[in-house]
């Protein structure tokens, strides 16, 4: 995640979770941001401002009269005002137009700047309708907020109100700088690799990690879209209902890749499951990114029980078996059937205005094969990878984007996150 050269005013108010703002500060710096800090008088009772001073930062304490006009200077400095943690007290004061601390005063002096609240408090306080109404009201005035995490509070009460994961906050800070080019759009992404089972334990698959698809899903959220991800065999640590529909439930990464909690996740395993979910979801979708690595073949027959070693004998080559000098190993003969082309299937039911974005892995005649697939499958876009270049399962990606008019754009090797942002910009 990058916040290079962004000016962030980090305001820390008096919650028991104040100490987490130290980690947040470090992550903001690591992401390249310039950070100035205000510590409220109550927050200064929980953490010493000296912590930030020892990192070389100038810390503003909560006395607007100590250095006159600092609220104006700080409001002008900020590209974003990040109040984390944001107390019940400070949120409600700001919503009521009260400006009696350096933090509330600075927020008042920056009506046009984005302001992000990170509420953190006891679950009953967070459930209080006064707070809920004020958070809603503030949305109309350049404020947004990060949903707190659910769990046991410091006092022992259980519920929503905990300081969220730092990744979630950084994601929202980044989002504040992103153009909402996909606002109101429904985006469907497929990610991961299908598994075609031969028996309950053995399957045919490939090395796709799902990173490209997850990165696209995150980037689409940041561009303002409502996102559904059909996840094929990636992670599995998040909880799902019996239909395989899940959410991140406080866990915000799959295979070490950050996944935003607003993404609706549908888990599927094999080609048949993917097809069923894809065709059902596609009807509700404006833009489909088909980033999953789908098997071209399934087994003609799937054994309900584990195939035993001795079953190989029955399938071995008769001639070889009867031969006196039989030295070759026994052979298990398995038949594969070709799977339907899912991109062709969705393109054939495509409504006017729907966008279908395909991905293709090629090892030779990259552009030629890409063009052919784009035309054959009536795609709006195709991104072609040269998989001979160690891309599958890796951290980075590169390739060519071809659009409907046949224009080609080259994308140099970079992280899948950065590439995903660029591909989202292309269609936005
Ligand atoms: C031990 C203790 C823990 C507190 N934790 C929280 C908290 O997590 N969230 C919150 O909204 N208020 C919390 N408060 C209350 C605030 O500190 C109090 O409302 C204070 O006036 C906030 O001032 P500020 O918003 O200017 O920082 C706590 C108070 C105490 C004494």
Strand residues, percent:
25-35%
* Count of extended strands: 24
Structural class: alpha/beta
The CATH architecture of the largest domain: 3-Layer(aba) Sandwich
The end-to-end span amounts to 20 Å
Instruction: Name the poorly predicted regions.
Output: 236-250
How many structural domains are formed by the residues?
A: 2
CATH class category name of the largest domain:
Alpha Beta
Please state the average pLDDT score.
90
Going across the biggest sheet, name each strand in turn.
13-14-17-12-9-18-21-22-23-24
Cofactors, ions, other ligands: flavin mononucleotide
Q: What is the helix fraction of residues, given as a range?
A: 25-40%
Q: What is the CATH topology of the largest domain?
A: Rossmann fold
DSSP helical segment count? 16
| Largest sheet geometry | 10 strands, mixed
What general form does the structure show?
Answer: elongated
The CATH superfamily of the largest domain appears as CoaB-like
Radius of gyration: 27 Å
What does this molecule look like?
The strands form six sheets. The protein has a ten-stranded mixed sheet with strand order 13-14-17-12-9-18-21-22-23-24, sandwiched between helices. Helix 4 (about 70-75) packs across helix 6 (about 100-110), helix 5 packs across helix 8 and helix 10 packs across helix 16 (about 415-425). Helix content is about 30%, strand content about 25%. The protein contains 16 helices and 24 strands. The protein folds into two domains: about 5-175, Rossmann fold, CATH 3.40.50.1950; about 185-300 and about 340-425, 3-Layer(aba) Sandwich (Rossmann fold). By secondary structure, the protein is of the alpha/beta class. Bound molecules: flavin mononucleotide.
């Amino acid at each position: 995640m990058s916040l290079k050269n962004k000016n962030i005013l980090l305001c820390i108010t008096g919650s028991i979770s104040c100490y987490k703002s130290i980690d947040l500060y470090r992550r903001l710096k690591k992401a390249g941001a310039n950070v100035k800090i205000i510590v409220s008088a109550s927050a200064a009772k929980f953490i010493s401002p000296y912590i930030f001073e020892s990192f070389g930062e100038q810390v503003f304490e909560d006395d607007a009269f100590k250095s006159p006009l600092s609220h104006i200077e700080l409001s002008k400095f900020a590209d974003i005002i990040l109040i984390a943690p944001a107390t019940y007290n400070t949120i409600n004061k700001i919503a009521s137009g009260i400006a009696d601390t350096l933090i509330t005063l600075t927020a008042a002096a920056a009506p046009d700047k984005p302001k992000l609240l990170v509420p953190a408090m006891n679950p009953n306080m967070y459930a209080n309708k006064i707070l809920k109404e004020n958070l809603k009201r503030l949305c109309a005035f350049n404020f947004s907020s990060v949903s707190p995490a659910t769990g046991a509070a410091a006092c022992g009460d259980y519920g929503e109100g905990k300081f969220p994961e730092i990744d979630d906050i950084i994601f929202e800070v980044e989002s504040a700088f992103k153009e909402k080019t996909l606002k109101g759009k429904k985006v469907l992404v497929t990610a991961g690799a299908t598994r075609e089972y031969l028996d309950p334990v053995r399957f045919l698959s490939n090395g796709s990690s799902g990173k490209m698809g997850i990165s696209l899903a995150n980037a689409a959220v940041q561009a303002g879209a409502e996102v559904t991800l059909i996840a094929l065999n990636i992670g599995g640590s998040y909880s799902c209902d019996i239909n395989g529909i899940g959410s991140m439930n406080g866990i915000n990464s799959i295979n070490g890749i950050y996944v935003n909690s607003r993404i609706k996740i549908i888990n599927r395993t094999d080609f048949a499951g993917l097809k069923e979910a894809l065709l059902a979801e596609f009807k509700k979708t404006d833009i489909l990114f088909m980033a999953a690595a789908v098997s071209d073949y399934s087994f003609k027959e799937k054994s309900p029980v584990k195939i035993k070693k001795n079953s190989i004998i029955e399938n071995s080559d008769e001639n070889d078996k009867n031969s006196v000098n039989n030295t070759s190993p026994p052979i298990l003969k398995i038949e594969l059937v070709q799977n339907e082309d899912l991109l062709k299937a969705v393109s054939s039911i495509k409504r006017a205005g729907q966008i279908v974005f395909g991905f293709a892995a090629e090892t030779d005649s990259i552009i030629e094969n890409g063009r052919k697939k784009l035309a054959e499958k009536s795609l709006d876009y195709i991104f072609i990878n040269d998989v001979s270049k160690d891309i599958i399962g890796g951290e980075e990606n590169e390739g060519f984007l071809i659009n409907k008019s046949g224009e080609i754009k080259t994308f140099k090797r970079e992280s899948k996150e950065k590439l995903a942002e660029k591909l989202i910009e292309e269609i936005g």
